[in-house]
Amino acid sequence: MAEKKETKKKVAEKKEAKKETPAKEEVVIETPKAKKETAAEKKAKAAKDKRVYEDEERSWEQVALPKKLLEEIVAVSEVYSLNKEQTDKLADRVKDVYDSRIVEPGEAVGIIAAQSLGEPGTQLTLRTKHFAGSAEVSVGSGIQRMEEIVDGRSKAKYPTMTIFLNNEIKKDRDAAEKFSKALIDVRTKDVTKITESFEELKFSVEIDKQKIKNLNLPLEEVADILKAGLKDLKAIQRDNVVHFQIEKKSEYLAVRKAMIKLLKEKVHGVKGIEKTVLVKENNEYVIKTSGSNLKAVLKLEEIDGTRVFTNDIIETAKVLGIEAARALAVNELKKVLDDNGIAVDIRHIMLLGDLMTYSGEIKGIVRTGINKLKASPFARASFEETTKHLLDAAFKGEIESLTGVVENLIVGQPVKVGTGIVELLMK
Fold first, then answer.
1. pLDDT, mean of residues 284-300
2. Nearest 5 degrees, angle CA 295-CA 299-CA 301?
3. CATH code at position 399
4. How far apart are CA 33 and CA 199, in angstroms?
5. Which of the chain's ends, N or C, has fewer CB atoms near its CB within 10 Å?
6. Is the pLDDT of residue 27 over 60?
């Protein structure tokens, strides 16, 4: 009996437990029913997905264009408030024009660039221009300047600088004038005159008042430099003349050597800058110089360091690096041709600039420059010193791979440019 009671109790408990836990179907009922999409909504979503996919596929930012062109497209679309579609159209148009300008495969760009620069080069003037009192201070323009750039000469014949001033003094003529005079490299000998009297064991140094006035130099400053340079001698200053007295005749030679050394002493200015001219350009004062020292000028506070430049390409390469030197070489060549009224496509000049600078330093189009870098012995021999190059190649056991233009011409094979680049055989 007792066992039956217990079993009934367990059955009752199980029934209670079943009542408390909701059935599985009930759990599903409690969750909100998924909303059914209408046909119109499905269509709209599909169109949106397609648009996003297309945008990702042909976003104008993914158009294969140089970075500078893409930046210009951004700038134009901002100025004219273009929407996405219009910007895409603009990018496509730019790409079409860009693609039409790209060199065709197999085009002999080197030969065309050489002809395009060589032929007009024969028309350049042989005279050297001297701009009397004008902005430039005697600048070689014409065949000499072109030769100088192309040969990659280590010293420019007429080095000049264009110095832009900072915001504080670029509009103030007096301050700019004062600064331009302070740049001129002045040595003691430029502003003094010596009178010697060997019998009386004395000599005098006269300071030119007019010269120091033109250069805004105080008289006392120059006199102090003279006294400091010959501090062992007795010195008496009367107005603009400093008199020196020597004790013994035997000292005269030593004093003379010291005096010659003193004459080269710097009074003020930047080493290498001989003359300066102040000119007004685009409503601001700019200094043009004869002589150049980019490294020293860039340290001065009064200048705008982002715009100062020299026409000396080697100096630019040393101070600002090879990229700056390449840009300067291209600009200078273009300027020489423009000054003489000769129109040459900038891309030929750029190719020449790249050829001169790709090794990391300036290499001229001379036998010691780019010709030396050529891998092909025949190509080196075709330029200058033919036997020397052929003998060198023979001694070293160099191999001629006949990949270039010149090598194939020498052996009478078709040149690998134009149709010669095609290696397709047909039955």
1. 88
2. 145
3. 1.10.150.390
4. 124
5. C
6. no
| Tens-place pLDDT, residues 353-408 | 999 999 998 998 888 888 888 888 998 998 888 999 999 999 999 999 888 888 99
Q: Please say if the pLDDT value at position 23 is more than 50.
A: no
The answer as to whether 403 is a domain residue is yes
144 in a domain, yes or no? no
Taking the CA atoms of 206, 209, 213 and 217 in sequence, report the sign of the dihedral they define: positive
**Is 221 within the bounds of a domain?**
yes
Domain that holds residue 243: 186-268
Contacts of 146 (CB under 8 A, 6+ apart): 121, 124, 333, 336, 337
How many separate domains does the chain show?
A: 2
- Residue 303, classed as helix, strand or coil, is strand
Q: Which amino acid is at 49?
A: D
Give the domain-ending residue among 239, 268, 297.
Answer: 268
Phi-psi region of 152 (alpha: psi -120 to 50; beta: other; left: phi over 0): left
Q: Does some domain include residue 260?
A: yes
* Mean pLDDT computed over 311-319: 91
